[in-house]
Amino acid sequence: MVGKNADKRKAPRAKVSFFLDCNVRLDQPAVPEAVIEDLSWGGIRLNFHKDAVTAGLKTGDRVMGEIESENPALQMVFTGKVMWVADFLTGGDGRRRVGISFDEEVVYSEVLHSLRPQEKAGEQK
Amino acid sequence: MTVATPEFSINEIFDPFFLESLHKQWLDDHLTLGADVIDAQHLWLAALIMKMEWLLKAAPSALRTAKLSSYADELLRFLSAHLELEELVMRTSEMPQIDDIAREHAELLVKLREALPKDAAASQDKMAGFVQVVKMWVNRHIKIEDPRWKVHLGKKHFSPNDYVRSVLKDVLSEDESAHSLLYEQLMVQHEVIPGIRKETLDDLFLLWKRFDVRTNVPLIDMQHMWLFKMVIEVEAMLHIAFEQRREHLEWVLSELLSYVDVHFMSEEHLMEKLGFKEEKNHRKLHEDFKRTVTKLKVEYDGGNHHSLSSLVTLLRQWLLTHIVIEDKKFAHFCEAEPQKSLNASRVLIRDKNIAIPRDQTLIYMYISARLRAS
Questions:
Q1: Three-state DSSP class for A7?
Q2: Which of A8, A86, B97, B180 has fewest C-beta within 10 Å?
Q3: A16 interaction partners in chain B (CB closer than 8 Å)
Q4: Residues of chain A contacting B, Cβ within 8 Å
């Protein structure tokens, strides 16, 4: 939980959950409802049922989807690449957790913009 | 590869609107014991229970099921650790019948683990029952059981706060834990968004609700909220003697004026891109305002201190009136094609590299949630 593992990613995690009221729908592959576990400037961590469609998903695969929410500051269409896949069991239910890195062309939502890492003084772009 | 069940995310607890409700319930239920280490743990338990209650009211979904399971796991883990810690403190203080109390705690944990539905998706009623039982027990524990121990300490002339800290100083490193941070922010600083006073948020909410200037273009709404917040802060400073407020006021004013530039640029750019017919008139209003501000600023820099008060008054009145009357016209225009406005604003953020500070997003999420609930 708290401070258990050092965060190795370039972009910081959201310190306050901005993704309480949203879900993700993947269109490629077709996953009608995925749970957002984490959201950062560079990508998203999802978890969903492991079924016939999602079982074939592997590192390097291309994905396309949408963050759905009543709040317009959260809504966002994205494309990206699967960076890692991990399977786990919860209550006897087989589930899949994936880390997705967003493509550079993705137009970010306002909430994601607020998670953009701040450049330090003197740091080159 | 098989890994453990999903980790519980502490981030969700720090949602500002949730914190506000938690704070209110804590005070309404009189849950403060007076030993901050213990209170911080009780607060965390209350937060987990309240989160589960909120989730149970939401529509069933995979998201809800996964979150309920994570919260239930964390609740049992934390309750077990909390009871163990309290038993240690009670034993050290030679609390009578501590063995009976410890046995009751152990029995409770067994019962709760048995009551926890194994398949959260299929047993929503059972999960609701579980939450109800935990809530009743925790309330009783905080309001009846722990005060007995506090009385016991009082008889021995110990301060509960000092006593708990002295017993636990070698056992726990509490200060960095999530529940201690929550307690510090909510019960010591009384802030639902760190660094922003509760009164400022209340004033902002009332202003926002009263004038209803939502454009549903998050960038513009966030900027308007931020400007309102700055105006409220400047307004609050008018009640302080000039010499005391001067330095801070100068700083806030300079921040406000810089931000006004960013906001005007954003609005003008969006109006142009979206083909808003009154764009030229609106731009002229912005320019007139900037000219007046520059004139007052030059006078102030030249030694006329009265110009600062005039500047504050102008900013407050002009910004409020402008947003409420002029920007509302643009808000109506945006309502016609919300998706188009949203897309244009996001391209603007990217192309002009407009910064959205985290506090702005937090305020936006907080006000939006509070509006939905009101």
A1: coil
A2: A8
A3: 11, 14-16, 358, 362
A4: 1-3, 13-18, 20, 23, 33-38, 47-49, 71-73, 75, 86-93, 97, 107-111, 113-116
Under a CB-based contact definition with an 8 Å cutoff, are residues B56 and B68 in contact?
yes
Among A76-85, A110-119, B104-113, the minimum mean pLDDT is found in: A110-119
Is residue A47 one of the residues assigned to a domain?
yes
List the structure tokens of A14. Answer: 């959201």
List the CATH number of the domain containing A57.
Answer: 2.40.10.220
CATH superfamily of B10-188: Hemerythrin-like (1.20.120.50)
Assigned CATH for B198-373: 1.20.120.50
Arithmetic mean of pLDDT, B346-367: 91
Q: Domain spans of chain B?
A: 10-188, 198-373
CA distance readout (Å), B374 to A84, B119, B197, B368, B371: 42, 35, 21, 10, 5
Position A2 scores a pLDDT of 34
- Does the structure's ipTM exceed the value 0.85? no
Between B169-178, B269-278, B362-371, the lowest mean confidence (pLDDT) is in B169-178
Domain count along chain A:
1
What is the number of CB-based contacts under 8 A between chain A and chain B?
Answer: 121
The reply to whether B61 touches chain A by the CB within 8 Å rule is yes
Which pLDDT score is estimated for B296?
83
pLDDT at B287 over 90: yes
pLDDT at B355 over 60: yes
- Residue B231 contacts residue B361 (beta carbons within 8 Å): no
Residue A34 with chain B: CB contacts under 8 Å: 62
